[in-house]
Structures are given as structure tokens and as C-alpha cells.
Amino acid sequence: MTRGWPATLSSGRVGLRPVSVRDATAWRDIRSRNRQWLTPWEATLPPGSGQHPQSFRVTARELRRNARAGRGLPFVTTYDGAMVGQVTVSGITWGSSRSGNLGYWIDRTYAGRNITPTAVALVIDHCFTTVGLHRLEIAVRPENTASLRVVHKLGLRQEGEAFHFLHIDGAWRDHLLFAVTSEEVHGSMLARAVESHQSQD
Q: What domains lie within the chain, and their CATH numbers?
């Protein structure tokens, strides 16, 4: 069992809780309404992989198994208690690395309300202060301006570019690589998110 999991996090109207198979109906509704918004940034299976897309219920069970094994932290993002997206830490490595990869998405209806930066900040703080990770990485397609705003708001350090890094929307896509370590967070990442949002108001 991972230290700090399962966990429920919150700041104001923004919350995070473990993903559940009971989220299937809400997930399908959000994804249906947001198909054009999300598809350009969605991971896909390369041809010849021999794998097939999984249902949400199967994926949720797999995510929960990984969480119990210490390999991931699959959160549902909520706003006033309703599911509006996800923040997932995957590929957690322990030993001398203590690192993981962080990804996120949100219902377009709720975009631009500082929900995702707040949720990501909450997860980063939790990973560093409670779970015991040292480093988190986020990969973003250069064309994904909405996702780039999140990493820029939080002041994550860009480390470089990765050629054909992930199979996204049917093809291998280049990504910009961002990272943050526990030493780089002075105070809390949540405080940084709040300050960034206030400075833009």
C-alpha cells in the first residue's frame, strides 16, 4: 500500500478523490460531451500493439490495483462535489528515483476557472509531503495551449523536448517535458497556484 493512499484532497470548491468504477456514468457523459475538446490530446494504441481500448470500468480497476501496489495515484477531480476531470500520477518508481509522471484533463465547461492548476498543485504537494516522492514530470504537446497554461501557472521547469514521445490521437507526437522536484517547492505548490491566479485577475 502506498503511503498517503487512498487520499481525499481539497481547496475551496476543488476536490480530489480516488477514481471508482461508480464514476463510469459521469465519465461517459463528460467524455461524450467533450470528444472534440479531448481527442487531440488523448493517448492511443499504436498499430500492431495487439492491445485494444479498455472500458472505463476495466481501466478504473487497473488504476486502483496500481495504486494499491504503489505504482500510481488515480484521482478524480471534482468541483462542488461533481466529477469534472482527472489527475493521475502514473509510472511511480521508488528506490533511488522516487519519481512519477503526472497527467490531467478537464471538462471544457469548467476550463478557465483555475480548477486544474489547483488540482495539480494539490496532488504535487501531496506527493512530496505525504507520499514521499522526490520528482514529478509532465509531458505536454506543444500545440496544447490549455495544458501549457497549467504548467506555466505553476512555474514548472521545462527540461527539453522529446521527439515522437507518445502515441496521441493516432500518431507519434512530439512533447515538451516539464518537471519539478521537492526542493523546488518553497512553501507549497497550492500557494503558488493561488498567487498565480490572483496576479492574473
A: 9-200 (3.40.630.30)
